[in-house]
Amino acid sequence: MVSPIGVHEAKVGSQHLSLPLMPISAELAIALLITVDHGVAFAERAGAEIAERLAPFEPEIVASVATMGIPIAIEVSRALGLDDYLILQKTPKIHLSDAVSEPVRSITTDTNQRLLFDRERLGAVVGRRVALVDDVVSTGASLRAALTLLRRVGAEPVAIGTLLTEAGVWRGALGADALLVHALGAVPLFRRDRDGALCEDWQGDDSDLGAAASS
């Protein structure tokens, strides 16, 4: 079991969180936000604040990625006055045997995965304006895969809402789609200097994150 090596104080919209610093390699650590650990009131307020940022784009449905994005999708949908939301799954299930899929890899998951779109839900997104929401944007890999998948099935992603962005690698991964991102806050990566002390890194590095994800 990996233990925290420190704490980072983060602002998420109008709320403040103490996030554990978790090592992902010998030289690199991240401020870890586990949405479900912060309770219903946190998710409700954060969802409402994300919804306020997304409302001008007039989304017709909210989509997210399992599992940490689910509470955010529910609360953003509720705050926007929508009664439906869509979750892209990462775990194969019996009803997803014929799913539309897209490969994805995350720095917090040590295996290759696939995002799965249930074909029975095509009617919910085809030709509709979709707001994609998630908890944290780090490398941008999950969001990029989700955007690709949604566009493949005929949806129109109009905005991305997230609790936090992490450093800056995600901007390169998303390219022009980085302009769609509306976040409640931002955190750096944490890198050890020559003396072994953790220093904030607001830019990040693709090779470091890729190596961490593969280790």
Question: How would you summarize what this structure contains?
Answer:
The protein has 215 residues and is of the alpha/beta class. 27% of the residues lie in helices and 33% in strands. α1 crosses α2.
Write structural notes for this entry.
This protein has 215 residues and is α/β, with parallel strands linked by helices. The chain has a domain at 38-186: Rossmann fold, CATH 3.40.50. The chain contains six helices and 13 strands. It has helices at residues 39-54, 70-80, 122-125, 141-152, 169-174, 206-214; strands spanning 7-12, 15-23, 28-31, 61-65, 85-88, 100-104, 113-117, 129-137, 156-166, 181-183, 186-187, 189-192, 198-201. The strands form three sheets. Strands 4, 5, 8, 9, 10 and 11 form a six-stranded parallel β-sheet that branches. A hairpin with a 5-residue loop joins β12 (189-192) and β13 (198-201). The longest helix is centred in the first third of the chain and has 16 residues, at 39-54.
